[in-house]
């Protein structure tokens, strides 16, 4: 029986780095135009910290406001669907009640109980006042 041996793993060939263009990129043009290197040459100036914090706070408030508005719009859409369903249900039930409340339907439903519509129209009962 043969003995176990390890295979020598072949080293993967790394592709040669492609030469980049030597032209100016968009960000390089912005860096050359704004000259931020001069401002931050000796570190971040302390006088800019309140402005940076204020801008960051405004950004956080803006993002929170957008999330709140989107959540409100989603909730509003759900409520519109629910209102439409409830309105359809209300109209169906109202139509059913109107149909069941018709005189002919009421007469038909109470006929098994022995109640029938009167053929004689109603009349007033007048009492004479007696003399005292």
From TrEMBL:
- Where does this protein have compositionally biased stretches of type Low complexity? 7-18
Coiled coil (UniProt feature): 69-96
Answer yes or no on keyword Membrane.
Answer: yes
Q: Which InterPro entries match?
A: FtsL-like
On whether Coiled coil is a keyword of this UniProt record, the answer is yes
Residues that span the membrane, as ranges? 48-68
What's the domain of life for this entry? Bacteria
What is one Pfam family matched by this protein? FtsL_2
What are the boundaries of the region Disordered?
1-21
Sorted alphabetically, which keywords does the UniProt record give?
Answer: Coiled coil, Membrane, Transmembrane, Transmembrane helix
The protein here is known as Cell division protein FtsL
